What we know:
The protein has 286 residues and is α+β, with helices and mostly antiparallel strands. Helices cover 23% and strands 22% of the residues.
Amino acid sequence: MVQSELHPADEGREVDGNSGEPHADPAAPRVLEAVEDRSVESLALHADDRSNESLPIPADEGEGARAFQASDLGAFQASDLGTFQASDLPAIIPAEPVQPAPADDLRLTSPGIRLSQLKEEFVAWVKTLMSAAVYAVLIVTFGFQVARVEGQSMAPTLEDQDRLIVNKLVYRIGEPRRGDIVMLYYPLNPDKSFVKRVIAEEGDTVRIVDGRVYVNDIPLKDDYVASEYRSHDDWGPQVIPEGYYFVMGDHRNNSSDSRHWGMVPKKYIIGKVQIRWWPVPTARVF
């Protein structure tokens, strides 16, 4: 067998007494025994051998340069690192603790509890609406009523399309008086309602001469009637029966009233006109 040519540097080495063989390669890593043989003592010896060797100095370092010896480590002091303080460390910001979810949020996230809340709110709203409806019915039935004027029979005191608030309670505890502006059912057709002024009460004697009204032979003070709205008719004299009232419109020559369809029973008088709230510029209390 032809042996491969050896490098001159490998000639003359003695390995196992054979000077003609090259230096053996290190053991393969797979050999377990070679790894286990590297004890702590052998590693320390190798480290000492390496520390005594001089490190090569590049040629361009110049004169005066020398190899760095391991003994030079002794001259290195820990103080050369400078004074180390805790403030040199980066600040550590503690994380904020996680707060537990409020009880209200937990209630909202629970479908069963949320459904129960919705039911309770719905029932509360229904109760509120029913209460409001009952109060409205009671107020309209026994207290107040909103009315709208249609026509000019009460001009100039009330004009067409004026909005009124009628006090229905006042005549449940009292009686109509002369001069009151009232809302009443039309005696010939109670489905209709009119707004008129009370001229005379039960027991009074009413007489009209050339449009001039006399109550118990005393001229009625009716300066609320404009001169152009006065009539020139004659009526009476007539005594007002018990439980009835004589009413007229302020627009005397353009009003259908007790002169034409007779007296009005008290039960047909709905209430007293208390406030004109529309139009706002002419709003007033009667």
